[in-house]
Amino acid sequence: MDHKSKLQEYCSSLTSYQRWPTREVMVGSVAVGKKNPIRIQSMTTTDTMDTENTIKQSIRMIEAGCEIVRITAPSIKEAKNLKYIRQGIRKKGYDTPLVADIHFTPNAAEVAARIVEKVRINPGNFADRKKFETHEYSDKDYENEIERLNDKFSPLVKVCKEYGTAMRIGTNHGSLSDRILSRYGDTPLGMVESAMEFLRICGYWNYHEVILSMKASNTQVMVQAYRLLVKKMVDEGMNYPLHLGVTEAGDGEDGRIKSSVGIGTLLEDGIGDTIRVSLTEEPEFEIPVAKLMAQRYKEGFTLEPLEKIVSLPYDPFFHSRRKTTNINGIGSDSVPRVFSDLSRIDNIRPEDLAPLGYLYSEEQDKWHLSEQAVDYLYVGNNKIEFELPGTLSIIQNSKIWKENDQSYPVFNLDNYRTTSKRSNQMNFLFIDDKTITDELKLILKEDKTIVLILRNSDEHSVMLHRKFIIDMFDLGITAPVILNRSYNDISNLDFQIKSSIDIGSLYIDGLGDGVWVDFGSEYGIVNQTVFGILQASRMRISKTEYISCPSCGRTLFDLQETTSKIREVTNHLKGVKIGIMGCIVNGPGEMADADYGYVGTGNGYISLYKGQEVVKRNIPTDGAVEALIGLIKEHGDWIDPVSV
């Protein structure tokens, strides 16, 4: 495919911030889309039949800033109970709209649509039961399937239209129907078509109070699906609002970083009207993360004028890495390299490297390396007076640099121009300009040892860095690029969110060969965050990945406690992906993106999966973590943890 000829069709502009113009949909008293603020949502984790606790938790969420509250309704009895939950919340003085979350039960959706302000249906399981079977459909067979779908779905559309109830058609990557998988595969296109089948039925009945979502635990898939959905809607003359989320993001810093990479990549380009950060924690803890993200785009932002991008040299709907020259292990197929800055420390000691993944044992006279050990250390005008581990190289300012196997010089354009003392292997070049100058073009044409360090400390840098790299594409420049960002005077959470967006957005599109982030002297926080960003964007795997759902009223065990137990005994298994699902709704499907799955199947029981296949059923939760370890050992992915 000639990506150069592929016009950018997934956002209003790649060089100036503009919200993608959507229609307005009213969810009760909350207006979504158009020029309204980005709305913040979350979901209760209580049993929906526990009216009192569901009301209390909903109010805690609302008081934390949640503007739309979602509650699961797995059957008609829960759907009917939404009436009493709604009444209780209203009696407490809150008019926040409620959403019924529906899976498998169209009749429950029709009941809920008469009670609450919005229903969410999953097109993967609203009219279909997933059997993980592949079918060959003729065009006529497929038309018949759509007719069956129409018969199942139209009654709900009519009820929603009659009662003024909004609807979210929420596709989940992990629960696509067998019909969609058979025709489109496990792809972003399949996710989009899954929603479009339902959306076209809504259009037939002239019902337009619809919001769409394309959630996945894989950030690349999630971003590509939303982009493709926007393109599809543009092609068909539609502009429905979009609800953004990374599903099963997990907990702690990993969940916050992963959500920020996926959601932030889209928000940065003006895509998204509501957001939900899905953490395996109490729902009110999701709200501060979502609020910080939404706040970042509340007033939009203005950059120095950039020349408009009218075509892309890469495919925004399919991930590929920018082709670069391999310079001393940076670029080409090498994983993105991680840089750290210790230039502010005058006398660097071995213990200063501990937050950067290098622990020195004086007794053994030996370095112990973590999987999150940095690759390059910038020391400025300083020197290292002790023997470094062989995996670590240093970067020094060119005026004091002396050539050796582990040291490389860094220049700016001024001192590069005036010196001939350069490395024969690799030279770093700081670039502060927003555009590629004629001088830089000439240097890069003549010197094939240069790695560029693109520096920026602006509030928003994604468009600037992306435009610079696209210009490199257009000029045929293949020098590797290190993305360098600086942050000051912000909280740790704000730093995590902003850096995840600024760096992760570019890595989603394969634009970068290394990361260098500065945040004062918070070296350990920076290092964990950078490796988390690379893992979340699927560019460098350095630890176990947990695909963990945020819990809801369907959850069949204590998800937070279980996730903590599993993490405690498996967090040393680099690259292994473990899915921890509270119930059967998304469990088996999300196992498609996990190596092993731990899924609730009944009160006090779980089933274990290898990929999408269930291998052990109805295991009591008391011994389930040990059974999971046994399964990992059985398939040869277990290693014993190393104590230092």
* Distance, first to last CA: 50 Å
- Tell me the number of helical segments per DSSP (H or I, 4 or more residues long): 17
If you average the pLDDT, what whole number results?
A: 91
Can you tell me the residue ranges where pLDDT is under 50 for at least 5 consecutive residues?
1-7
Can you count the beta strands? Answer: 25
Radius of gyration, in Å, reads 26 Å
Shape assignment: globular
Question: Strands of the biggest beta sheet: in what spatial order?
Answer: 8-7-6-5-4-3-10-9
In what range is the share of β-strand residues? 15-25%
- Look at the helices and sheets and give the structural class: alpha/beta
Largest sheet: 8 strands, parallel
Helical coverage, percent range: 25-40%
